[in-house]
């Protein structure tokens, strides 16, 4: 790629950098947490029912550590780059157009897979709660989702922070209610089938895959508090891992593998009673909403970056980007063209493969050809052994997604 093309990209980005993008450390944590705590946490108990809770813990540990490493690589790349580029733009700068298109494809597949799951899951939950058609429930969900994304990063950060607090209160109350009330049975948590760890890892990869939000965080933190970027990633991912383990612990422990529904809050709330039923499903909708905001904003920003669209004073382009982000998943979800868990698994496998290789390659290139010395560097987490494990594990998750899509996986893995 020529220096002129890089300069042109920088000029375009500088010209279109939106105002009011500064965020705080805790808003950064909330964006990471909100992006992760969405459909994945609602599907994990169902996806883990065959392997058991110990298998789920192993899968979460593998996926969580490796995904955090990948995110920290992207953080260093962003801090080495003067222009506030999105992931596709960073890939174009350091890896050329091929890398940029691969990253953009990963962003699109992961983002649309998640938004399809939110359209399907939110419609199902709101329909059951209020007796409305599922299509109407999905449409009602998408209205606040699109509105917050329209107003940009600062509005998303503030909304994520407020809703995340409400989510934490709801889920901690539900878990305490479960432990103190009906309680959990050790036999529901002690069984383990290691054979089923592979499909659980595939789902866990999706539950943790918030790499796409890192350039947005860098845009909001790099200028005034760059060292807060890696700290917000680590804190957000640790909080994610804790909650991703806590919810299956409570739900599986109380109901066992046969009682888990595809969206866990449906059965969980019923078991605890009417009040808990509404609390559980309100949590589910809020979890999908916070994840929708983070993923849709990142997806829209990458559309602007990849096609060099002007984002300031060009409402027509923003409308077009919103339509591209929101309409296809809404239609696919409403017409049930993809299942809730299957949409997450396929998206996680494909996006995981892209996001295992590309950040490693970008880190090596940025360390040689970056614009500036970064305020923070990935240390031991960038060891070659960890980089190799990242590529191998996420690559296997991608292979699983391919054979699963063609119905070639063993019984019980689908």
UniProtKB/TrEMBL annotation:
* Cellular localization per UniProt: Cell inner membrane
> How does the protein's chain sit in the membrane according to the entry?
Multi-pass membrane protein
What keywords does the record list, in alphabetical order?
A: Cell inner membrane, Cell membrane, Membrane, Transmembrane, Transmembrane helix, Transport
Q: Does the keyword Coiled coil apply?
A: no
The record ties this protein, via Gene3D superfamilies, to: Amino acid/polyamine transporter I (1.20.1740.10)
Q: Where is the signal peptide?
A: none
Q: Which InterPro entries does UniProt cross-reference here? A: Amino_acid_transport_2
The highest taxon in the source lineage is Bacteria
Residue stretches spanning the membrane: 25-47, 53-79, 100-120, 132-153, 165-184, 196-214, 234-255, 275-299, 319-338, 344-364, 385-409
Q: What is its main location?
A: membrane
Please identify the protein, giving its name as recorded. Amino acid permease
The species this protein belongs to is: Leucobacter alluvii
